[in-house]
User: What shape does this take?
Amino acid sequence: DAKTTQPNSMESNEEEPVHLPCNHSTISGTDYIHWYRQLPSQGPEYVIHGLTSNVNNRMASLAIAEDRKSSTLILHRATLRDAAVYYCILIDYGQNFVFGPGTRLSVLP
Amino acid sequence: ETGVTQSPTHLIKTRGQQVTLRCSSQSGHNTVSWYQQALGQGPQFIFQYYREEENGRGNFPPRFSGLQFPNYSSELNVNALELDDSALYLCASSRRGGGANTEAFFGQGTRLTVV
Assistant: This one.
């Protein structure tokens, strides 16, 4: 699986938008871009995924660069509950997740 | 809350002992993967089971083994426990037919402490 690069940590104020970046310069044409988050003392939780086009769901939006070498997870209004470690993962058919250290998001009240 | 259930939630074992961890997958999911998460790190892939057969393995020694049952539930067995095996063990279920275009659902994990 191709590797991803994310900032170690980010900080946001409550009710403000958050943009979490991810670089994946060696992505292959069949890799899907997945985002998961892990709240303290819990297992990872699915957030969103996409292949080429931008995606929206009830939790977040995923913006994918035209060359697919980077993507951004967008939380439109951060809440205290969004404080977590966010993982950007590239997945091929095998679905064996290769987790990096992720981005630890802190949300300030 | 996902439909993936892991048991037990916490476990303390002595070095050299054997342990079995269990996972009930989400309804309709035929693929189960196991991960080890050391404190402060991201989860590391151990292996995956699909239709009762191992279908991929990470960089873990043979003393880590598993099973998948006809109802798609799964077990992770670890023999000859070492102190470094202390970690959170996570189970994830998914629909294999969905390939990479589907999400996985993780359980809450089993916290194993080896003393």
